[in-house]
Amino acid sequence: MLKKGEKIVFFTGLRVVVDIFFIYFSFILAYWVRFVFQIIPVTKGVPSLLIYKQILPLVVLIWVLIFMHYNLYANKKKKDVFDEFLRVISAITLGTIVIMAGTFLYRNFSYSRLVIVYAWLFSILSLCFSRWLINIFAKKFFAFHKTLIMGQGKIFEHLRKILKKQKGEYFFSNLVEGERLDDFVKKNKIEEVIVAKFSAVHTEILSISQQC
Prior knowledge:
Layout: H1 4-37, H2 49-69, H3 81-105, H4 113-141, E1 146-151, H5 153-163, E2 169-173, H6 181-188, E3 192-196, H7 202-211
């Protein structure tokens, strides 16, 4: 089983890879819709697909950097889906404006503005949908976070009563001197330890943190 840090790295990497795939896919699909299916008739000839493929690595790089600026790769326990979709749309729109501006400055070839508009639309649809699926998967993957609650007294007992009613895997233990905490953590694959004790001294807490 992956540890908490490894899960974060995995899902961050997954989002980046999926974004790159769908950005690339959206531009290729946009080319086909414009020049092969021709919803709007082409009057100035059909350019080679290779010309569009050549600029895609730069487009992908620019868009991923913009996505990073919009914190679309930040891992939050609670995600506002609507807010994330708005940030995705804003990031894609900004990326499209940047690409559009770049095509005006590049004079060696006139890229179809309609291809870029199609790519904008397909990117919004595909990336919003893919992120929705990833978030569902991530929610289930992180659903049962193994937590060890250690302590004594009223705070510890209060937490025990509350957390027993919550979803998740919680383990409860008194702070017993000499207890093989490291073995317990490894055996039960504990990902987080909470010390619920007012009188826990600094050395005691430090000892626990070093074993987790």
